[in-house]
Design goal:
Layout: H1 3-20, H2 42-55, H3 59-72, H4 77-92, H5 96-109, H6 116-129, H7 139-154, H8 161-188, H9 192-205, H10 210-235
Helix pairs in contact: 1-2, 2-3, 3-4, 4-5, 5-6, 6-7, 7-8, 8-9, 8-10, 9-10
């Protein structure tokens, strides 16, 4: 991005914040044209440099300048924007846990700011980026769903909702596939009752998923195996998964 366009961008922010002291949706900030600021102003120059480094992908340098704006000019419109951009620099640098912490801090201090839908979306997306394969822990997946759902429920008119809803469906498929993976693993090690219960859970919690369709096809077989396992345990010819009697 050239110097003139960045100056134009910062001039727009200055005029906007004078009237409402809110951070506008970052995706809309680039639409206005031909608004200028005094380049020689220290605050404007700091923001100019921060944005220039950010657009170049030099996120560490951008972070330093945004942090300087935040610390030197607290309470100003530019400082509020800088706080938001601190999270953006970490996000685009791939440092998602750090980005989450910064976005959550922004939401905590500016809960009524109009950028909050964007912030919640970015928190969800940071967790989305951290999601793990089927055979790994799914804590990040669940956190991503939680934040995307929070966005959709609290801000039904948000432009980010379409993508959030799409990702919720994708992440639910991931969680369902893990349940199916665990059920099949239990069945392979002959823990048939556990496998059957896992299928039931999958069908109940994720009924719309492709894994639930597979689970329904396996249900009768797994049920028969679980009944036989219970009978064997009752006869004393087999111990349950934990080595004890039937509970």
């Amino acid at each position: 991005m050239n110097r003139r366009l960045l100056i134009t961008f910062l001039g727009l922010l200055s005029s906007f914040f004078v009237s409402c002291a809110k951070v506008p949706d970052p995706l809309k900030l680039w639409q206005a044209k031909d608004v200028k600021i005094k380049e020689e102003a220290p605050l404007g120059e700091l923001m100019f440099r921060a944005e220039r480094y950010f657009q170049r992908g030099q996120y560490d340098l951008a972070y330093q300048y945004y942090e300087e704006v935040k610390n030197k000019y607290p309470g100003t419109a530019e400082a509020i924007l800088a706080e938001l951009r601190l999270g953006d620099t970490k996000f685009w640098a791939g440092e998602y846990l750090e980005a989450i912490a910064l976005y959550e801090e922004f939401e905590k201090f500016y809960p009524n700011n109009e950028a909050i839908p964007y912030v919640i979306y970015q928190i969800g997306t940071s967790y989305y980026k951290l999601r793990q394969p089927t055979d790994r822990d799914q804590s990040f997946t669940k956190k991503a769903i939680e934040n995307y759902q929070r966005l959709v429920q609290n801000f039904p008119q948000s432009p980010y909702n379409l993508e959030a809803e799409k990702r919720i469906r994708e992440l639910r498929e991931l969680l369902a596939s893990q349940e199916l993976y665990v059920a099949n693993f239990y069945h392979r090690i002959k823990y048939y009752r556990g496998a059957y219960q896992r299928l039931l859970y999958l069908i109940e919690i994720y009924p719309e998923t492709s894994s639930a369709q597979v689970a329904r096809a396996l249900l009768e077989r797994y049920y028969r195996d679980s009944l036989k396992e219970t009978e064997d345990i009752n006869r004393g010819t087999k111990k349950d998964f934990f080595g004890g009697k039937v509970p």
